[in-house]
Design brief:
The protein is of the alpha+beta class. The protein contains five helices and seven strands; from the N terminus they run H-H-H-H-E-E-H-E-E-E-E-E.
């Protein structure tokens, strides 16, 4: 009896092993159906033209001081990242109320003679996603500063909006003090949410990583 049981157990084990060996492997992920391969850019030239219109509209709003148009160019909550002067990174997602409370005083304190030029490099990721690196130059009176920032733009419906902004050097800063003389005091560069997709990351109280 024991011998018979052993033989039966061996036969069942061998049979199970054979079935497992012959069974087809579980289907894996079809990498052609997900990610960038599945989300091809249909018309990069058209997308870049739309983005140029977005930049132009923002710069016009900046010159007019139209903060409503500037804030409307953002897809809230907006994620902003920066670092402090010691190189410690900071980041935070801002609601519209938080962002307006932080940025409005900065924009209102900008010198009236401020002028900004941009050299943008646009990378289209899809028909609704684009990355932008902006090398900007700002002058206010005799003060001239340059910098670089980056932004992720998203297309919401038919409108492009800013979703993420990264710019160095704003970490640890508190709310800006009112400018003693707006004509001669240069305000924080690029405090202009709608003018360029890369608004500066200027967290009032960012959450440190």
């Amino acid at each position: 009896m024991k011998h018979l049981i052993a033989v039966c157990t061996f036969v069942v084990a061998v049979s199970a092993f054979a079935d497992a060996k012959e069974a087809p492997p579980a289907p894996g992920m079809d990498i052609t159906k997900v990610g960038p391969p599945a989300r091809k850019i249909t018309d990069e030239k058209k997308t870049k033209k739309e983005l140029e219109e977005f930049f132009k509209k923002g710069e016009e709003a900046e010159k007019k001081g139209d903060m409503d148009v500037m804030f409307a160019s953002i897809d809230f909550p907006i994620f902003m990242a920066t670092d402090d002067l010691k190189g410690v990174p900071e980041s935070k997602a801002y609601s519209k109320d938080e962002y307006v409370a932080m940025m409005k005083p900065m924009m209102e304190s900008m010198p009236k003679d401020t002028k900004t030029t941009h050299k943008r490099t646009v990378t289209v990721l899809s028909d609704s996603l684009a990355n932008v690196v902006d090398e900007w130059t700002m002058t206010a009176g005799k003060v001239k500063v340059t910098g670089k920032n980056a932004a992720l733009l998203v297309k919401v419906g038919s409108d492009w909006k800013t979703k993420t902004v990264v710019e160095a050097g704003w970490g640890g800063m508190g709310p800006p003090a009112p400018a003693a003389d707006a004509k001669t005091t240069a305000a924080a560069p690029a405090a202009k949410p709608g003018a360029t997709p890369a608004q500066p990351a200027q967290p009032a109280q960012p959450a440190k990583k």
